[in-house]
Design goal:
The structure is a single chain. The chain is mainly beta. The chain has 3 domains: 8-162; 174-267, Immunoglobulin-like (Sandwich), CATH 2.60.40; 276-468, no CATH class. Helices cover 1% and strands 45% of the residues. The strands form 6 sheets. Strands 1, 2, 3, 4, 5, 6, 7, 8, 9, 10 and 11 form an 11-stranded antiparallel beta sheet that branches. Strands 20, 21, 22, 26, 27, 29 and 30 form a 7-stranded antiparallel beta sheet that branches. Strands 14-13-16-17 form a 4-stranded antiparallel beta sheet.
Length: 471
């Protein structure tokens, strides 16, 4: 074999371990975890490709795995691989015990480029390795299995040289810009208005969006590149939200000395703010459960809508929640402009995206989630049960989509549950709080947030009411 052909062997360490739950006594010995332990063999430019990175450098391997019958188990799964000192480590992935075939193996550098690939059998470059893909291996519970796929540097080769139609990698180029935020008050004279904090949400194509907290200083913000125009939503408590478009050219032209100035208009009739975050003494919320239909859970520390297995009875438990905020401190002459509900969790409930996007027979996709509905009948925190739950209405209900975020809370606009509105039947429903349930049907596991009875104050539900007073 020519010396200019460099190869690298990647050791796939499959660690079969007992999955021990902190909440259950029985262990599941049918599953194990696998991870990659990577050891370069021969000359390699892997370290050289990370010249611009420091500390822990993030690579990925893209793998596809099938069972012995050809059914996909992992399809183009991206598994992070980290350069750590002189060696490499990866995140662990759980896999059932059994026999499998490794059908794709690509190595991707931090720039999103495929730098090594394992050739498929019959590919033009397959002759350079001893064992081209697919490679068979077996995972046994309690046993460590090692798989050694040989990979070749991609260099100037095409995917076809390795037997692939394409490498299936989309390179996302970040776009960075500098910004400051001010309150544009004409009554503030020179030299300049003071900087302020705010929340900036950036929307781009393909449904990408992300929220940033702007500090009262120069902010360096990095967003997803590749779009000509971006929609900005600028929000600050007590002020009208601002929506506007900014071109990528404007963002790229910013510097530390000439940042983008985000202005929040000042108005003499600014929105006033009422923030409610009651604790166990003043809070009113409760959970109800179909497996304990006569039991009251008024002091439950979670505000949840869940559908989970009951370990003793081996049946599904449906839990729903009710909540009410005392708004007596709101002036009688106030006009409600906006109401935001902040819900936080201490530990997220893990759900699989496959469990919340369900294909239907007509070709559409059913998206499972939760709803907040207006409660239209009185109820008491220490008395309400599944069998005595008050009536709620679907009219103007607020949908909550399953989410994965970089923070442990979500903010939901529930204005339509509080602003008086008349139905098509000319009926104005009274407001006795919000009912939290899964929608449009129950699904595993659901949502679990903290309630007003949670011991950590920062996690309790918070209702922020924006309002104005007559002049």
């Amino acid at each position: 074999m020519k010396t200019l052909i460099r190869s690298m062997q990647f050791t796939l360490i499959l660690l079969a371990v007992f999955a021990i739950s902190s909440c259950e006594k029985n262990s599941d010995t049918s599953k194990g975890t696998f991870k990659f332990s990577i050891t370069p063999i021969g000359e390699s430019n892997l370290n050289k490709s990370a010249e611009a990175d420091t500390a822990m450098v993030s690579y990925h391997v893209m793998v596809s795995v099938e069972d012995t019958e050809g059914n996909p188990v992992l399809t183009d799964e991206l598994i992070p691989v980290y350069l750590f000192g002189a060696g490499f480590i990866s995140e662990e992935v759980e896999l059932d015990a059994g026999s499998y075939k490794l059908t794709k193996f690509l190595v991707i550098n931090p720039a999103g480029e495929v730098i090594f690939a394992a050739p498929l059998e019959g590919a033009p470059l397959a002759y350079l390795v001893n064992d081209p893909l697919p490679i068979g291996f077996r995972v046994a519970a309690g046993v460590t299995t090692t798989v050694l796929p040989e990979v070749l540097p991609v260099d100037d080769h095409t995917p076809g040289d390795f037997g692939y139609v394409n490498f299936g990698i989309q390179i996302i180029r970040p776009l960075g810009f500098y910004a400051i935020c001010i309150i544009d008050n004409p009554m503030i004279m020179a030299p300049a208005p003071p900087l302020t904090t705010a929340k900036l949400t950036v929307f781009a194509g393909n449904n990408w969006h992300y929220s940033f907290r702007l500090e009262a200083t120069l902010n360096h913000i990095i967003i997803r590149g590749g779009h000509d125009t971006y929609l900005f939503l600028l929000e600050k408590e007590g002020y009208m939200p601002q929506k506007f478009y900014v071109s990528a050219r404007e963002l790229m032209a910013t510097t530390k000395e000439r940042p983008l100035v985000l202005k929040i208009p000042w108005d003499s009739n600014q929105w006033k703010v009422l923030v409610l975050r009651p604790g166990p003494e003043k809070g009113k919320d409760a959970m109800i459960s179909n497996l304990d239909p006569e039991k009251n859970f008024g002091a439950h520390k979670f505000f949840e809508a869940t559908f989970i297995t009951e370990p003793v009875l081996t049946v599904m438990r449906s839990n729903e929640s009710l909540i009410w905020f005392n708004m007596n401190d709101l002036p009688k002459s106030a006009t409600i402009r906006k109401v935001m509900l902040k819900l936080s969790y201490e530990v997220p409930l893990p759900w699989d995206s496959a469990s919340v996007f369900i294909p239907k027979n007509d070709g559409t996709v059913e998206k499972l989630g939760g709803v907040l509905q207006k409660i239209v009948e009185p109820w008491e925190e220490e008395k309400v049960t599944w069998n005595s739950q008050p009536k709620s209405v679907e009219f103007n209900q607020v949908y909550i989509s399953p989410f994965i975020r970089n923070v442990n809370f979500i903010e939901v606009d529930v204005t339509r549950l509080y602003v008086p509105s008349v139905t098509t039947d000319n009926v104005e429903y009274p407001n006795y709080g919000m009912f939290f349930r899964l929608w449009p049907r129950e699904w595993v596991p659901g949502f679990r947030f903290a309630s007003s009875d949670h011991p950590v104050e920062a996690l309790r539900p918070q209702l922020t009411v924006y309002y104005t007073l007559p002049q």
